[in-house]
Amino acid sequence: MRISFYLIPFLVCLNSMAQNNFSRKIDSCNYDIRKLSIDSDNCNLYNCPKTDEMSVLIALSFFPELSGRKIIFKGKEIKTTLNARPTISSLLFSKKGNRTYVIRINTNKSDSIISLSDIPFNAKIGLFAHEFSHFSDYQSRSLFGIIARGISYSSKKTKAKFEKEIDLNTINRGLGWQLFDWSNYVQNESNATFKYKEFKMNIYLSPEDILKTINALTVQ
Predict the structure, then answer these.
(1) CA pair distance 54, 26, nearest whole angstrom
(2) Where are the alpha helices (DSSP H) in the chain?
(3) In this structure, what are the phi and psi dihedrals at residue 134, rounded to the nearest 5 degrees?
(4) Of 148, 216, 194, which Cα lies nearest the Cα of 10?
(5) pLDDT tens-digit readout, 50-108
(6) What's CA 5's distance to the chain center, in Å?
(7) Which of 1, 6, 2 is nearest to 165 (CA)?
């Protein structure tokens, strides 16, 4: 599958900014969770699951602009593994730099829904990084800009454009292999339904597209 034509200018821009520093596997043993917490000012993480704290902190360390932001984790029955958004109250009453963000973690135990606990560590970093890319995007936008982002979800075409831009941002942060492992896990290793896998292939970058993007950036 080729990267969509409308993403080519965006990819060219990424080529000029890429750090060309992709780690194939991130080993938790190479990180000190206490240092990660201090560096990211993570006293503002609320209800982060202890079992996922390391993957969250590693992913967050690639987004320094989110340092100090209040991020709340909530369990909820949703149709996907995670979703992320700013709170309505912080959108309406807080400055851009003081917004509060929520990551909702699926609690539905259906056999066909991917559980966060089943996802390999490297892939989990890619998944959280994708959500933090959303927060980074929201952080740069006004209230009306975020409303426009929300409206884009009403169309499959514009939703796909938005989500693929977020995937490309995640790759550009240096987490391309982690995003690849997440996408590859969904498509080739998980117990997700065919319908869900097809949805993911249509809306997000496929494993093949992610590999092409990594290769395009690393040869620069």
Answers:
(1) 11
(2) 8-17, 33-39, 53-60, 88-93, 121-139, 143-152, 156-170, 176-184, 194-203, 207-218
(3) -60, -45
(4) 216
(5) 999 999 999 999 999 998 889 999 999 998 999 999 999 999 998 888 899 999 999 98
(6) 22
(7) 6
